[in-house]
Specification:
single chain, alpha+beta, 2 helices, 29% helix, 38% strand, globular
Length: 90
């Protein structure tokens, strides 16, 4: 069940990505959903925003262009998808 706050899911993902050497920046604007910016450390201009949305009982990580990355409970798949989009080898 998706009971964790969106920022909690993004913080968990940010920690995992940081351990993988991927730069992250969590933005929590007032009155708006949080956004995790993920950056390729070899090419900082390669930055993409990741958001979290709940669909029914499950939270999902999404790209800003409305494409699902992975369920929030599946950090391995999320990290793999983010690495692919940022152009980083698995």
């Amino acid at each position: 069940m998706a009971t964790q706050a969106p920022s909690g899911h993004l913080e968990e993902l940010a920690g995992r990505l940081s351990r993988e050497g991927i730069y992250t920046r969590l933005e929590e604007p007032l009155g708006k959903p949080p956004i995790l910016h993920v950056l390729n450390p070899q090419l900082p201009a390669a930055e993409e925003p990741v958001i979290v949305e709940s669909t029914g009982d499950e939270a999902w990580f999404w790209w800003a262009w409305a494409e699902r990355i992975a369920p929030a409970r599946d950090l391995d798949t999320a990290v793999s998808g983010i690495r692919r989009v940022l152009g980083l080898a698995a």
